[in-house]
Amino acid sequence: MAIENITMPQLGESVTEGTIEKWLVKPGDHVNKYDPLAEVNTDKVTAEVPSSFTGTIKELKAEEGDTLSVGDLVCTIETEGAGGGEAVEEAKPAAGEEANKSPVAGSQNEMELSGTQGSAKPAAQKGAKGRYSPAVLRLAQEHEIDLNQVEGSGRDGRITRKDLQQLIDSGSIPKEGTAPAASQPASEPEAGAQGTPQPAPKSAERKEAPPAEAAPGDKEIPVTGVRRAIAANMLKSKQEAPHAWTMVEVDVTNLVQYRDSLKKEFKEREGFNLTYFAFFVKAISQALKEFPMMNSMWAGDKIIQKKDINISIAVATEDALFVPVIKNADDKSVKGIAREINELAAKVRSGKLTSDEMKGGTFTVNNTGSFGSVQSMGIINYPQAAILQVESIVKRPVILEGGMMAPRDMVNLCLSLDHRVLDGLVCGRFLARVKEILENISKENTSVY
Fold first, then answer.
1. Over the range 102-140, which residues count as b (16 or more CB within 10 Å of their CB) and which as e?
2. How far is CA 218 from the centre of its chain?
3. Tell me, which fold does domain 242-439 have in CATH?
4. In the chain, where does the domain assigned CATH 2.40.50.100 lie?
């Protein structure tokens, strides 16, 4: 017999953690390779974690509702095969061995200085603890948590998001310069100037805002893993990307007339609707090809200009928002784009969207006009550089050339941009090109096939 580990997989591009929504197995159950073990929610997709082995479930390492970082242990499986004894030993954390290690004087490989001057800790105590996931680093930064004072519950002492959330909920947040948490051994205090623990001055302490409390008659709604992940991703986008915003209005009277003349015949022939949104996505993907800087991402010391034009579209359910991707949208016809929009939206609402269908987006187009919005500022879908909101088409009186006034179908296009990557000049020219394409759509010069 051998014990094998199942870890949290990466279920989408930029996904760093997932929440165990529901276990599909229990200890003692026999599973085959690729059988689903648990349903997991992330900010991008709801998916099943498959088994990598055939065997018997030994132990579930997380409970329903727990949030785990990518690579964290999910469960263990007992398999049949040679070398079982060695595998069992390898599956167990060598906690005793690590704890008994002592630093060798002068060895930089086995010593690390702590945050307080005059003390040192063996690097063996750190182990995987020092490899923090982006979710842990983000949460620590938001709440000013000194990670050197946190004891991790993950594999090899790794600090998990759950560890930090427990500290935040308890109000016992270790700050830099304060004494170590009570869970650390009393025999290893971090020494101050006189060799005794030195608490931070009261003036340096920052009081955390108390959480909102429900009053009688209020309804409390638990935060799901999907909602928590969406909140974290939106917060990261607003904190890291300096948002700017610009808007143009477009006369789409000819587009409305052209689409309305086709929609009945198209539905009977193709079996799905020809929406205005498909025309907008086609026009935007064409303009992205002409202005490739808009199809870029910030990458710290460089900007990555993406070759493929993959349009992310926002699809909402009653309690969550998903962003599936239309791959190589610039190579597709209006009909092809309309089909993908229809299929992806159906998969989102039926819960059948896969992680592959969420990957690779380079630019986001959001159909806010579908619920009547006429002007809005979207939050950028990190790490992309921009998001374009297509607002509601509204009939308004417009003064035409020559001074004549006539009713026209008008729509606002609202662009949010990451000002680290994009400037007003390229964004203005990009929107002007999208406007030009849309205003010249007509029966005479546009084909949906």
1. ebeeeeeeeebebebeeeebebbbbbbbeebbebbebbb
2. 30
3. Chloramphenicol Acetyltransferase (3.30.559)
4. 2-97
Radius of gyration of the chain (CA): 27
419 catalytic? Reply is: yes
Q: How far apart are CA 385 and CA 381, in angstroms?
A: 8
Q: Which single residue is written with the structure tokens 């962003």? A: 323
Residue 143 annotated in active site: no
Paired residues of 325 in beta bridges = 312
State the Cα–Cα distance between residues 432 and 73, nearest whole angstrom: 51
Closest by alpha carbon to 224, among 419, 79, 39? 39
Alpha carbon 414 to its chain centroid, in Å, reads 23
Are residues 12 and 361 in contact, defined by beta-carbon separation less than 8 angstroms? no
Name the catalytic one among 260, 308, 331, 423: 423
Give the β-pairing of 386-390 and 363-366. Answer: parallel
Q: How far apart are CA 446 and CA 449, in angstroms?
A: 9
Res. 118: pLDDT tops 60: no
Q: For 150-170, b where at least 16 C-beta lie within 10 A, e where not — what string?
A: bebebbebbbbbbbbeebbee
Q: What CATH class does 2-97 carry?
A: mainly beta
Tens of pLDDT, residues 286-330 = 999 999 999 999 998 899 999 999 999 988 887 778 899 999 999
Supply φ then ψ for residue 58, to 5 degrees: -90, -50
Q: How many CB atoms lie within 10 A of CB 233?
A: 21
Instruction: Give residue 6's identity as a one-letter amino acid code.
Output: I
**pTM higher than 0.85 for the full model?**
no
Closest by CA position to 72, among listed 63, 64, 88, 61 = 61
Answer whether 73's CB lies under 8 Å from 155's CB.
yes
Q: Pick the closest to residue 398 from 411, 388, 385 (CA basis).
A: 411
Q: How far is CA 350 from CA 45, 214, 324, 403, in A?
A: 12, 33, 14, 51
Stretch 46-68: mean pLDDT, rounded? 88
